Amino acid sequence: MLAPDIRPRSFVSRRLAALGARIGRHGDAEAALEVPGGTRETLARLGVVDLSPLPRTGFKGRGTMAAMQAAGLAVEAQPNRAFRQTDGGLCAVLAPGEILLLSGPGGDGATVRQLEAGWSLDQVNGTYLVPRASTHCWFRVTGTFAPAMFAKICGVDLRPEKFAELSIAQTSVFRLTGIVLREDIGAVPAYHLLADSASAEYAWDCLIDAMAEFGGCPAGLSALLELGGGREAAPQDRLGG
Fold first, then answer.
1. Rounded to two decimals, what is the model's pTM?
2. Residue 149 near residue 211 (C-beta atoms within 8 A)
3. Of the candidates 198, 8, 6, 192, the residue with the CA atom closest to the CA atom of residue 104
4. Angle made by CA atoms 227, 39, 218, in degrees to the nearest 5
5. What is the separation of C-alpha 19 from the centre of its chain, rounded to a whole number of angstroms?
6. Total count of domains within the chain
């Protein structure tokens, strides 16, 4: 008997299917690789890419920071600050004892999987696994008009002159509790947005509606990588960034 296909899929798969997205394998996930009308140029102006199928996780507890540093992550105890990793991922510090780990879109998510596999209830040491793949959808919003678009749906001023790169806002976005993390792609403003997975389709619809005023639309993972959204961290971006 063939083993069931348990590759992660998107929380907004129905929305993507309705757009005619080409779904394909990316690492261990099924992601929207291409979306009609969504190009590199789209993302430079204003676009959104669904990263929900890609690996991410979290850890929480008094021993979390020491455990992450011992595991080789570049991270410091600076709440609401993210740190780039050598594999292109991000370690986001949400609180002194809580981190969110996002895999790099251009990588295979090995760091996330290894940390999850290495955690055990028998060896807690003040660090508890907080799985994020099932609890939070993950969208990447990019483009020159992204800050103006966010002004319509978010209570925090995300303009580059007010919201520094690698800063994190834990705030209300379209009346949901969300996590917004700024990580530009070269000169293109770009943000990670995570929200409750149970409201993923609502969040997606709100984004699409808010982007319409600026001519924004969805794009696929291929366009994001072409824009440069899967780069590895430069040495100066690492610890202390």
1. 0.91
2. yes
3. 192
4. 105
5. 22
6. 2
**Cα 138 to Cα 133: distance, rounded to the nearest angstrom:** 9
Residues 141 and 222 in one domain: yes
* 135-166 burial: b if 16+ Cβ within 10 Å, else e: ebbbbbbbbebbbbbbeebbebebeeeebeeb
| Six-digit token string for 69 | 């540093």
Q: How far apart are CA 111 and CA 71, in angstroms?
A: 10
pLDDT in tens, 179-209: 999 999 999 999 999 999 999 999 999 999 9
Tell me, what CATH number does 89's domain have? 3.30.70
CATH number at residue 168: 3.30.1360.120
Residues 180, 121 within the same domain: no
Cβ proximity of 105 and 51 under 8 Å: yes
Domain that holds residue 98: 56-132
